[in-house]
Amino acid sequence: MMINKFPKDFLWGGAIAANQVEGAYLKDGKGLTTVDLLPTGENRFPIMLGKVENYTPQENEFYPSHEAIDFYHRYKEDIALFAEMGFKSFRLSISWARIFPNGDDKEPNEAGLQYYDDVFDELNKYGIEPVVTLAHFDVPVHLVKEYGSWKNRKVVDFFEKYAKTVFTRYKNKVKYWLTFNEINMLLHLPYVGAGLIFKEDEDKQQVMYQAAHHQLVASALAVKAGHEIIPDAQIGCMLAAGMTYPYSCNPDDIQKAMDQDRESFFFIDVQSRGEYPGYAKRFFEENDIELAIEPNDEELLKKYTVDYIGFSYYSSRATSTDPEVLKDQTAGNVFDSITNPYLEASEWGWTIDPKGFRITANQLYDRYQKPLFVVENGLGAVDQLNEDHEIKDDYRIAYLREHIKQMGEALKDGVEIIGYTSWGPIDIVSASTGEMKKRYGYIYVDRDNDGKGTLSRSKKQSFDWYKQVIESNGENVE
């Protein structure tokens, strides 16, 4: 039977990450986490790329995660606003360092466990389904300093203990889980994705793919533990998605676009299909990458694959083998891309491509034949208060409207999608730049790039628009 509308139990909502909203960065026993060492300004990207060795905040730097938007103390107010919009689900992450401050602690931090109990209870009060990410771009700094983070096999054991701890604690409160946020980001921002800091003599590719193997094994162990502890749990992986277009029909361009997509698919191939694909094995061989794989690893990967594919979609990419074409690169996106002459871009240089959303969803479903969950999609933009202290963010509505329409088209194509949590339903600290002026939310937060402001919340024009989208189950997006 042809699906022509959103399923009646479709999980509409929004998505955040602990390190971008909570603040209270050392409150109630929380340990220092990698994101707590990411300042704003020119020093941010060298750290994100793993080029700088540093384990403590510096006095002359501003760290936006330390206060963020203070969701830690204001979550009741914020969840009430999400409930007013009609959220069916809410994606959030647990800060690993709130549960195990050092990562290798013998016992968990009760205050941290209780905090998330309270958040889940508040969501439950409004009938909002939590969708919880175990690792969203944060690693306890102690694990980076003492073990080298995900370079070290021991971190797999620490992560498994953390996963088992939260599964056991929240087994009656959380059904939907994700193991690693945008796991493919490890190859683009290694410190952000895996807490990696490179030494001068290290082979970066070798280090990154070994760390990737450790995360993939940890993901499989989390799936195993999750299903044992919570029999009806749905545990997914998560990809920073967006297909790569060849610039021309030159077969070399087609091949390059396929290779770039496979750089990301590699992770999900393992998590969803349970084994390393042939193209990855060839890549390892041709680049002298030798993974330390323990005897039981391949069996673990094969046996404990994910239940669904979570993915973020903001934009598509384009590539070419023509040196002249490659000179025209878009600005601002973590993923290299040439400018697509058929598409417009956001203020941060991100290509706006709603049809690419439908194409990407089809591509993922064709490849994996597992349910999809759109766990991030949104537009970062500068919002201006008018003379009546309102924000008319019609540009955000336009972006989301066209993407939701294309998600509907994907459903008509037969793609199984279980939910849509748009990114940053409330203004949050940008993961890439650390800015507050790059806003995604339906709710405005009074805070600027320097951390100044009252942190008061107010509704934007898009608040009521998204409310009507949810009320109509995606039928009324105008």
UniProtKB/TrEMBL annotation:
Pfam families: Glyco_hydro_1. The active site is at residue 376. The keyword Repeat does not apply. Transmembrane segments: none annotated. One of its GO terms (biological process) is carbohydrate catabolic process. GO terms for cellular component: cytosol. The keyword Transmembrane does not apply. Its EC number is 3.2.1.86. It is an enzyme of class 3 (hydrolase). One of its GO terms (molecular function) is 6-phospho-beta-glucosidase activity. Belongs to the glycosyl hydrolase 1 family. This is 6-phospho-beta-glucosidase. It comes from Gracilibacillus salitolerans.
